[in-house]
Amino acid sequence: MSAIRDSDFVITDSFHGTVFSIIFNKPFAVLVNKKRGSSRLECLIKQFGLETQILSIPYQNNISLNDIDWLKINKMIELKIQESKHYFKDCLQ
Fold first, then answer.
1. pTM score
2. Tell me, what DSSP letter sits at residue 12?
3. 90: which of 11, 27, 64, 72 lies 20 to 30 Å off by Cα?
4. Within 13 Å of residue 90, how many CA atoms lie on the same side as its CB?
């Protein structure tokens, strides 16, 4: 995690590398490996509207290095946290 936290830019092919890049607000590119299973990674990327961060094979220069709106992303994360808290609270009652 510290490698991602302390980086200027992340290139990853993993779900967790993508998650921590988002959490730490690090510009990133993700290589989707269909052979490893990509559905949850693609779902995560789409959920935050970050499809421009996907490196496609064959390579296409479609990466947006400086256009991630971290304020918007962080607000979405906070909303998801609140939704989860409400869900668990409702389940426990």
1. 0.82
2. E
3. 72
4. 6
Q: Which positions ≥6 away from 38 have C-beta within 8 Å?
A: 32
54-55 β-sheet, strand order: 10-12, 28-31, 54-55
**Angle between helices 39-47 and 15-23 in degrees, nearest 10:** 20
Q: Does the CA dihedral 15-21-22-23 come out positive or negative?
A: positive
- DSSP-assigned beta bridge partners for residue 28: 10
CA atoms within 13 A on the CB side of 78: 6
End-to-end CA distance of the chain: 35
Neighbours of 33 (CB within 10 A): 12
> pLDDT digit string (tens) for 45-75?
999 999 889 886 656 565 556 589 999 999 9
The 10 Å Cβ neighbour count of residue 78 is: 10
